[in-house]
Design goal:
Blueprint lengths: L6 H14 L3 H7 L34 H32 L5 H23 L11 H11 L2 H13 L5 E8 L4 E8 L10 E7 L6 H4 L3 H8 L5 H11 L6
Antiparallel strand pairs: 1-2, 1-3
Helix pairs in contact: 3-4, 5-6, 6-8
The chain binds manganese (III) ion.
Length: 246
């Protein structure tokens, strides 16, 4: 192995770092200690499941209560657990200098972190008061990028319906050129553009719609347009539009 630091120097450095970051509690448990000190998970780089921003039945009739409950409480929660597990395992790998599972852990990290990010955005970019069309600068950016709102809508629906297997339809802001782009993401992490910011996401894993729509993905996507929270999408656009050529 071609370490830049000797193992001894690295372990010494990590020891200081783990004390400074308050990580002793995690490692105490991982190494068989019985006293797990529960620190603030966010300070340790872990993530937490955010509550839904509305009641479970708020998106009826377009998304039913049972689907939303299972989707948020079980599926999204699973991605949070998966991310935190991979994050902690990678910390342990650094301390023990055992990278035998590095490919597996890197994949797990990417998959679950992307799942957590996209689901958080998905809940926020839907609303029982959603629907309609965007206005203001977001509408101007969409016209510049897609020709018209109708052009965007048709493109987004076709692309999202055609996602192969489990994935997402996503409208991103691509800061190198300052254009909006529609992507088809497979799983959560594949087929992106590096550096692009997701502004609008539509989950087309079967768990997002199958109970109500079965295999009719296109109807679910059409109904999704009735609950898009354009106010939130516009807020995200405002937050990143200045990052052109960062
Ligand atoms: Mn999902």
């Amino acid at each position: 192995m071609d370490h830049l630091l000797s193992r001894r120097e690295m372990m010494k450095g990590l020891g200081v770092a783990s004390i400074a970051l308050g990580l002793g509690g995690i490692y105490g448990t991982a190494h068989g200690g019985s006293q797990k000190k529960e620190g603030n998970p966010l300070e340790q780089g872990e993530c937490i499941l955010p509550p839904l921003p509305y009641p479970y039945d708020a998106l009826e009739p377009y998304i039913d209560k049972e689907t939303l409950t299972i989707h948020h409480d079980r599926h999204h929660a699973g991605y949070v657990r998966g991310f935190n597990k991979a994050w902690k395992e990678l910390s342990k790998a650094r301390v023990s200098d055992d990278y035998s599972l590095i490919k597996h852990l890197s994949r797990e990290l990417s998959f679950h972190a992307s799942g957590h990010v996209l689901h958080t955005l998905y809940w926020e970019n839907m609303s029982p008061k959603g629907g309609g069309e965007p206005s203001g600068e977001l509408a101007e950016a969409m016209n510049k990028s897609f020709g018209s709102f109708a052009g965007f809508m048709n493109h987004f629906m076709v692309a999202t319906k055609a996602v192969e297997g489990s994935g997402w339809g996503i409208m991103v802001f691509e800061p190198y050129r300052g254009y909006l782009v529609i992507l088809q993401a497979e799983k959560h992490q594949d087929l992106t553009i590096w550096g692009a910011y997701p502004l609008l996401v539509c989950d087309v894993w079967e768990h997002a719609y199958y109970l109500k729509y079965q295999n009719r993905r296109a109807i679910y996507i059409k109904n999704f347009f009735n609950i898009i929270n354009w106010t939130e999408v516009a807020r995200r656009y405002q937050a990143v539009k200045g990052l052109v050529r960062y």
